[in-house]
Amino acid sequence: MSGQAGSPRAAGFRSAVSAAVAVVLGAVGIAGVGVVVTAGPAGAAPAIHGIDVSGWQGTVDWGAVRRSGRLFAFAKATEGATSVDSTYAGNRLGMAGAGFALRGFYHFARPDRNTAAAEAAHFLRTVGPLGPGEVPVLDLEVAPGAGVGDWAAEWLGLVAQGTGRTPVLYSYQSYLYSIPTSRLTQYPLWVAAWGADDGSVPATPPRTDRWSRWTWWQYTSNTTVPGVVGRVDDSIFAGTAAELAGYGGTVPPSADPLGDLVRGLLTNILTGLQGAPKP
C-alpha cells in the first residue's frame, strides 16, 4: 500500500530525508569554518577578528588573510589633503575579491595642516563611490586639542553625505578625552588599546569616554597573520557577522539560514515525491 513503512515509495522518502539531513549537517559544519574568534565572558558570543594595513605592510595576500578567519579588513587610502597610500588601489582590489564581510578605507587626518573640508574632498575624490561592503574611516591620532573634535565632526559629516555611508571613527583612549564634543558619538567607534601589545587580547577592555560602547577594538599592533609580511594590527568586532555586514550597506543574511535550508530541501523532496509515479 502506498505510504506504508515497507513500500518502495516510503523507502525513497526516507532516503531523501536522510540526504537532506546530511546536507544540513554539512552546512552546520561549513558555517563554523574560516572565522577567527576569541572567547569572551561566559554566555557571550565569540569576537570576530580583522586586520588593518597601509603601505608599511607592502603587498598583502588577501586570500590568505581571509582564509586565516578574518572577516573584516581596513586599508589606508589617504592622508592630509594630497597624499594617497601607495598600496591603496591594490589593497582595495584584493580585499574585494577575498570575500570579507566588511572592507574599510581610512583617511589619516592632519588637522594641524589642513581644513576638514579640504581633507574630506581629497578622500572622496580618491575613493569615489563605495560599493557593497565598503565603509569610510577617519584615523584621528595627531594634533589633539579642543578644536579637533569639531574638525573631525565636520570631516565625518561631509564624508557621510558624500558616500551615503556612516563613517567609522578610529582613535585611542587618551586622545578621545582631549577632544570633548558630543558631535562625534553618533559615529561607531574603533578604539586602540593595546595593553601589553604581545598579540593577545588584554583582559581589561578599553574605556570609551562618551561612547556607550566600542564597536571595534584594536587590541594589538603585534600579531602575525598569513598573507602579511611582518607584524600587523589586529582588531575584534563587538557584534555578529550580520551586524558587521550591515555597516557596509549589505543586506544581513537570514536570521535562520539553516531553517531556510531545511524548509527548501523538504519542499523540493515533497514536490518530487508528489510527481513520482505510484508503485
Care to give the gist of this entry?
The protein is of the alpha/beta class. Helix content is about 35%, strand content about 20%. The protein has helices at about 10-30, 60-65, 90-100, 115-125, 150-165, 175, 240-245, 255-275; strands spanning about 35-40, 45-55, 70-80, 85, 100-110, 135-140, 170, 190, 215-225, 230-235.
Question: What features would you highlight for this structure?
Answer:
single chain; 279 residues; alpha/beta; TIM Barrel; eight-stranded mixed barrel; 8 helices; 10 strands; globular; disordered N terminus
Write the layout of secondary structure elements.
Layout: H1 8-31, E1 37-38, E2 47-53, H2 62-67, E3 72-79, E4 83-84, H3 88-98, E5 102-108, H4 116-127, E6 134-139, H5 148-163, E7 168-172, H6 173-177, E8 189-192, E9 216-223, E10 232-237, H7 241-247, H8 257-275
Parallel strand pairs: 2-3, 3-5, 5-6, 6-7, 7-8, 8-9
Antiparallel strand pairs: 1-2, 2-10, 3-4, 9-10
Helix pairs in contact: 1-8, 4-5
